[in-house]
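Final report, closing paragraph on structural work. Over the funding period we assembled a curated collection of sequence-structure pairs, and we close with a single example.
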Amino acid sequence: GDPLTLKPASPDSMPAAPRASVRDAIERAVISAESPVVPAPAANSPPDAASAPAIMDLTKAPTSLWQRIRNGFGLPDMTSPLVTEQEHWFAKRPDYLSRTVERSSRYLYYIVEQVEKRGMPSEIALLPIIESAYNPVAYSRAHASGIWQFIPSTGKLYGLQQNFWYDGRRDVMAATNAALDYLQKLYEQFGSWDLALASYNWGEGAVARAITKNMAKGLATDYRSLRMPNETRYYMPKLQAVKNIIANPAQYGIELAEVPNQPYFVAVTTTRHIDVKLAAKLADMPVDEFLSLNPGNSRPVIKADGERVLLFPADKADTFRSNMENHDAPLVSWQAYKLKPGETVERIAV
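Its predicted structure, as stored:
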């Protein structure tokens, strides 16, 4: 019941600043520049008003999405030579990180929202950086696709449609919700995020077998104690390195482009087939930008199949709706035709 007096921490008692790093990817997009980081005072300098740590008002939503992510960090920090190695990797590739941030700016707000709704640590929103460099059409040798890198079988297991017209693994909203469902299931199965994340990379069966082997030998069964492939061994250090860089980019000589803490896109449901180029035209936006928000559509025509959700920049959704209402010409210039018994492609072509 007594009043609580809060004093600035002395420089000697302040925790050391975190660190960070990752791999390779592919394309393009938008953005600005990260808020400056105030350097810590020298170890022997006396604390004063200027050097006292700033007080953060958690009742106000941050304007920076990076700050919102920092506020939600919840995974235990990991320190190891592998983390340091990944930090150096990123620090030497600022252009790579810049391109990744540029791509992520379209999708990150939505992903952070979904992560927070589920009560998950915000580091999960950084996972596509190490999975795909936030490239929505990334495709691996293992046939994994999209920013969350689902293989076909796991994608189908978590409700992601995959057909001639559409691949839900590349659909940002659908794949994000499927990935978070899968990660929650893994967390409930293994009881820790490091093992859940190792399972996301290596497979839950492989992690379960590694745990069983260690138990039979009387060995510890935590992440660090399991025998695993190098890719999985580096997985958590990569995520930790990225986390450290996001936490304090200036420490690594990196300038993060700012990502506003506001929605980038708006979802619009359509029940009609429409050409990709026409959809972009009706929204008054470039086709490349439309495809970056709707990468799940594989053909020049978007096949509604009852209904299809399309994403538009927040300032273009009303334009699309209005132009669709006033558009009295055909919406498709292509037509799908299913061969009848006895028909051939050659005959149809004539």
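Residues 283 and 320 are 4 Å apart (CA to CA). The mean pLDDT is 86. We thank the funder for supporting this effort.
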